Amino acid sequence: MLTHLDSQGRANMVDVTEKAVTEREATAEARVRMLPQTLQMIVDGEHPKGDVFAVARIAGIQAAKKTSDLIPLCHPLMLTSVKVELSAEGADAVRIVARCKLAGQTGVEMEALTAASVAALTIYDMCKAVDKGMVIEQVRLLEKVGGKSGHYKVQA
């Protein structure tokens, strides 16, 4: 059942008033594929715009906090933790892992996905002058804990 549709099939915000406040956490990831020399420039700290990972981390955190402004039917949430980790993966990719937590009445999957996505977009923005062919890929939910639907973990 799609919870964002009313009985007439119209989009609406889910009413979470009666839901219990529980601890909830979600982890999402994204990857940015790029030329090996672009990744090397980032890792070596030689990018003319500064520390790419630091800027992308802050952008991801900020995005998680603004998810309800971007996704129309998301509830504004009082996040208690947002962590965005970036690391070189192989010779030509950056892996981004975003984790969001709260004690609340609805989950934080969209916040984690938004954080990972915006961090990836920020990497693209900062590096597009040297590598327009970068590809953002594999944006996905890795794990969610808490709430009525229980625990979900992606199969490896």
Characterization of the model:
This protein is an alpha+beta fold and 156 residues long. Helices cover 29% and strands 29% of the residues. It has a single domain, classed as 2-Layer Sandwich (Alpha-Beta Plaits). The chain contains 4 helices and 5 strands, in the order βαααββαββ. The two termini are 27 Å apart. The mean pLDDT is 92. Pathway: Cofactor biosynthesis; molybdopterin biosynthesis. This is Cyclic pyranopterin monophosphate synthase. The active site is at residue 125. It is an enzyme of class 4 (lyase).
* Strand percentage: 25-35%
> How many DSSP E strands?
5
Determine the CATH topology.
Alpha-Beta Plaits
Regarding CATH, which class?
Alpha Beta
| Structural class category | alpha+beta
Share of helical residues: 25-40%
Mean of residue pLDDT? 92
Describe what is shown at a glance.
By secondary structure, the chain is of the alpha+beta class.
Top keywords for this entry?
156 residues, alpha+beta, Alpha-Beta Plaits, 5-stranded antiparallel sheet, 4 helices, 5 strands, 29% strand, elongated
Secondary-structure map:
Layout: E1 22-33, H1 36-43, H2 52-65, H3 67-70, E2 81-89, E3 93-104, H4 109-127, E4 135-145, E5 152-153
Antiparallel strand pairs: 1-3, 1-4, 2-3, 4-5
